[in-house]
Amino acid sequence: MGLFEKKPLLATVLGRAFRCLVCDHAWFWTREVKLNSTGAELVGLAWANTSALGLVCDECGYVHEFAGRNRPKLWSEKQGYPEGTR
Q1: Which of 30, 41, 60, 69 has the fewest CB atoms in 10 Å of its CB?
Q2: Is residue 48 classed exposed, middle or buried when 0-12, 13-18 and 19+ CB atoms within 10 A define those classes?
Q3: CATH number (domain holding residue 56)
Q4: Helices (H), 1-86
Q5: For residues 42 and 27, what is the distance between their CA atoms, to the nearest angstrom?
């Protein structure tokens, strides 16, 4: 995959196929989402806040945010979901 040939991805969360909560679509774009806090914003340290993984639905654009240890695993169209995905 080249630098400018990005395609939406499939996602699994805790071993389950993830689908959009709004439109039930299965393909997502990814993006880092900053979890800003008021205190850090006030003292100019917003860059130091933690981040979440944002899955942006390719169909409706809804952004699903995942923070913490159990972030989604991402799969290309060529890979498909791994064996055993529920």
Answers
A1: 69
A2: exposed
A3: 2.20.25
A4: 38-42
A5: 37
Tokens of 18: 């993830």
30: Cα separation from own chain's centroid: 5
pTM of the model: 0.79
- Beta bridge mates, 51: 34
Which structure tokens are listed for 24?
A: 């039930």
81 assigned to some structural domain: no
Tens-place pLDDT, residues 6-63: 899 999 999 999 999 999 999 999 998 877 666 655 566 655 567 889 999 999 999 9
**Tokens 């240890």 belong to which residue?**
69
For the chain, the residue count is 86
pLDDT, position 44: 63
- Could you give phi then psi for residue 32, rounded to 5 degrees? -80, 135
